[in-house]
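User: Hi! I'm working on a homework problem where we have to compare a predicted structure to a textbook description. Could you give me the structure for the chain below?
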Amino acid sequence: MVATLACVHRSQTDVTLFPIWDSAGKEGYIDSRGQVVIKPQFDKVTDFSGGLAAVLIGEKWGYIDRKGEVVIKPRWKPNDRYIAAANPFKDGAAVVVEYATWAEDGDSYFCGYIDKTGEYIVKPQIRRECRAFSEGLAWIATDVRDKDGVRIYKDELNWGGFIDKKGNWAVKPEFYRSSDFINGIASVTKYSYPEQKWFYIDKTGRTVPDKEAIEKQKAGMPAPPVKPALTLKFLRLRTISERPNFRNIYGYINEQGKYVWLSPDAEKILEEGWIRENYISRILK
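Assistant: Happy to help. Predicted structure tokens:
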């Protein structure tokens, strides 16, 4: 039985590079033909977005370009809350998390935003959430606590709003939850369940009638994502561990149904007849 693993690619310019790994567990990238573009050398890689990809080198995250060159030096350490320390670039900026903390009333993150030079455009602070920029604004949920460390829910404290790329509030923090903006419209709510009621706002925070907002969002809906040229598929179980990719057998299959890349040891584990029929490097020999 062959199970499909999701391989997320965030824009049409990024779908040509696909993460791979070698027998030592180092990771790199191939193109849609299965050719190695960036040889496995990193401890962990992520998908490219905005021309850059976050990679783990040793114990810190940084960013590389599509040539595999480090363009933002590693300086963000993984945290024990399983929150990504270095996130994809969107709208010219990326969310980075210096550290994360846990409390009974919820996690907190020392998060901010960097540009493609690695400089902070919005300095990190303790916040409950830092969401990626979209249409020039980013949702941030504040985190204010009393002298005993208990989170305060009062007035504008510990609610969310939208900031611009200078870190100024474009929509002041007075909401409990929000979607991202689509064509200048976002849906928000001021309350949690069961009183939760959603409504629409524009980029100034002005309430927009439902009919007008829905029509505007529909008109600005982005095109559906382009189907990636390759799909990563699970082929054979060999071990169960925190990093199963290191030893289990996977492969990238193209739109013609042929495999352009097989993970380390695949040719030792899979049946010879299957490989000759399905693995493109053998087919072409």
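For your comparison, note the following. The chain is about 10% helix and 40% strand. Helices lie at 210-219, 266-269, 272-278, 280-283. Good luck with the assignment!
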